[in-house]
Amino acid sequence: MTVQSKSQRFANLVFPHVSEIAASDHAAKYKTLSKKAGSLVRNSGLMQTIAFFRAKATRSGEEHHQDFYDYLQDELRKLTILPANQDLFEYVRNSSVPEYMYLTREILLLINWHKRLADTLISVEDEND
Predict the structure, then answer these.
(1) pTM for the structure as a whole
(2) CA 41 centroid distance within chain
(3) CA–CA distance from 96 to each of 24, 92, 110 (Å)?
(4) I need a surface site. Which of 4, 84, 86, 112 has the fewest CB within 10 A?
């Protein structure tokens, strides 16, 4: 087994998700969201950002918000940060302050990889950006 850095592990988890989205019809919107997601977390907080992703996905049918949420949840589960049977929203909502701070740091690192890989793999830009 090859030992990988944390950055490599995160990139390897994010890469298939961004590759999948790059072939979709909402790739440009996903790319825009990936660029803005880190600022949303830093300015509004993790809980508010996750709630925003869920609300946008369920109320307005914004597929890229649902994809982003689902991908983060899947990646956190694979990293064993999020228990397999837990919903990300509920887990964050019920976490202690130290857990919340830890989750925020880890999710910001994942978001950074989404942004980097979206920039690389998605060539189209969202006209509404």
Answers:
(1) 0.90
(2) 11
(3) 37, 9, 21
(4) 84
Encoded tokens for 11: 């990139």
In a domain, residue 32? The reply is: yes
Question: Domain total for the chain?
Answer: 1
Distances (CA, A) of 108 to 1, 24, 68: 27, 24, 13
Distance CA 121, CA 36 (A): 17
Q: Which residues contact 88 (CB under 8 A, 6 or more apart)?
A: 50, 69, 72, 73, 76, 82
| Domain of residue 99, residue span | 6-121
CATH of the domain at 108: 1.10.520.30
Tokens of 4: 């990988």
Q: What is the pLDDT of residues 62-106, one digit of tens each?
A: 889 999 999 999 999 999 999 999 999 999 999 999 999 999 999
pLDDT at 114 over 80: yes
| Six-digit token string for 42 | 């830093």
